[in-house]
Amino acid sequence: MMDIYVEAGKRVHAVRIMRGYTKKQLAGLASITPKFLYEIENGKKGFSAQVLYNLCNALEVDCDYIMTGRGKPEETNRLQEA
């Protein structure tokens, strides 16, 4: 069975790179430390719903994408603009 935090961390990392953020920049936007972001991206730590919300808000991506991988990161949050 795959670890949900490992998979979510991989998606956070991929979207962070896609958006052009450094770990320090995204951590600041999400109100967490760069070390905690590193641990999330590498599946070493779980995270709360608040941290998930903060990361998704900063990355402009739906929480569902980070947790499940459903959809595409470049398409999420676009529905709110329509």
Summed up, what is this model?
It is built from five helices and no strands.
Q: State the major sheet.
A: none
Number of strands: 0
Spell the H/E element sequence.
HHHHH
- Quote the average pLDDT: 90
- Structural class per helix/strand content? mainly alpha
Assess the beta-strand content as a share of residues: under 5%
Q: Unreliable stretches, pLDDT < 50, 5 or more residues?
A: 78-82
Q: Specify the number of helices.
A: 5
Radius of gyration: 12 Å
Feature tags:
82 residues, 60% helix
Descriptive account of the structure:
There is one protein chain. With 82 residues, the protein is mainly alpha-helical. Helix content is 60%, strand content 0%. It has helices spanning 4-19, 23-30, 34-41, 49-59, 63-68. Helix 2 crosses helix 3 and helix 2 (23-30) packs across helix 4. The longest helix has 16 residues, at 4-19.
Please write out the topology.
Elements: H1 4-19, H2 23-30, H3 34-41, H4 49-59, H5 63-68
Helix pairs in contact: 2-3, 2-4
